[in-house]
# Entry
Amino acid sequence: MAIVMLCVILLALCSSAEAQQANKISRIGLLSNLSASNTTAWEQAFRHGLSELGWIEGKNITIEYRYSSGRNERLRELAAQLVHLKVDVIVTSISPETEAAKNATKKIPIVMASVGDPVGSGFVVSLAHPGGNITGLTNLAPQLSGKRLELLKETVPNLTRVAVIWDPDTPISSLAWKESHAPARALGLQLYSMEVRSANEFDEAFANATRARVGAVSIGPNTPVAGNQKRVAEVAVKYRLASIWQLSEFIDVGGLMAYGPDRSDLFRRAAAYVDKILKGRMPADLPVEQPTKFEFAINLKTAKQIGLTIPPNVLARADRVIK
# Structure
């Protein structure tokens, strides 16, 4: 009889524990240096990825959204807020957010969705063995610098000189600038350095580039640009310069062309990391993955504004066209 009673008690305890686990609502912190309006597509992809894995916002997860709206100096404060809330995992996008989250906690798992150089930035020991509380996906942004120059060469008639906007204070931006030199030489292009450390330098930088007779501008991963895409696109149009960006979303605010990883797909895949972590896996044991989908986008409205005709062979390769 005693054995039967013990079994009943153990069964009741197990059922209670399972019920508590089933009813637990996990808390996810999402940290962005952009505004909510700039991240809608990516966040939808992230939530969709979570729902496919059984995580529904408002049912078994809550998401704490924090946006710095281009003010990187606020990221530290916002990351601290998420730590204070004791979220179960923090999701970031690019390097500034990941750096802020890393400085805020060594315990809470961090999933980066689109960092350009996680090893060089010191976020992980290696892609195969992250080694700490950070893992996720890299966007391979620097290695794509040559492809963007190639597309500019094919698009702009008689192009010989290209300006590259980069921020010396941002490691991934500096790497992208270095990665541009070899392909530029192979394409017969001269590079003009447009160093920009803050948003108030864009007008002067473009004016100087125009005086230097550049024919186009390549805009890679760049912290000052991150929260000021529309302004940069407008200045490029003002000086009638063809521009190519690293993310297709940036043509929606007036950029001419963009080639790079599909960031919505990266955010969707980031959900799989969150799923594994919420189920008990450690970030140190989850290898960093690379992008598998890339997108080439063209804004024909912007082309018309600067008096440029996109060659048919280039237009035919676009995955998305704004007319």
Notes: The radius of gyration is 23 Å.
